[in-house]
Amino acid sequence: MAFASKRLGKELAKIHGSLPPGITLVTAEGFQEWLLDIQVLDANPIYMNKTFRLKFKFSPSYPIEPPEVTFLNTADRPVPMHPHIYSNGIICLDLLGQQGWSPVQNVESICMSLQSMLTGNTKNERPEGDEQFVASNRRRPRDIDFYYHDNTV
Amino acid sequence: MSSEDDFMSGMSSDEDDVLQESENEEGSADDFGFDEPEPDLGFSQKEDVQKKKKIFDVNFKVYQPKDIQAQQDDLIDEVNMILDIRKEDAAILLRHFRWNKERLIEDYMDRPKRVLEAAGLGTNVAGPPKLEVIPGFCCDICCEDEPGLKSFAMKCGHRFCVTCYNQYLAQKIKEEGEAARIQCPAEGCKRIIDAKSLDLLVTADLQQRYHELLTRTYVEDKEHLKWCPAPDCQNAIECGIKKKDLDRVVPTVVCDCKHRFCFGCILSDHQPAPCELVKRWLKKCADDSETANWISANTKECPKCNSTIEKNGGCNHMTCRKCKHEFCWMCMGLWSEHGTSWYNCNRFEEKSGSEARDAQAKSRVSLERYLHYYNRYANHEQSAKLDKDIYNKTERKMTQLQSASGMSWIEVQYLNSASQALQTCRQTLKWTYAFAFYLARNNLTEMFEDNQKDLEMAVEALSEMFEKNVQELAEPKLKVEIMDKTSYCNKRRVILLADTADNLANGVWSWGIDF
Ligand SMILES: [Zn+2]
Ligand SMILES: [Zn+2]
Ligand SMILES: [Zn+2]
Ligand SMILES: [Zn+2]
Ligand SMILES: [Zn+2]
Ligand SMILES: [Zn+2]
Question: Fewer CB within 10 A of the terminal residue: chain B, N end or C end?
Answer without folding.
Answer: N
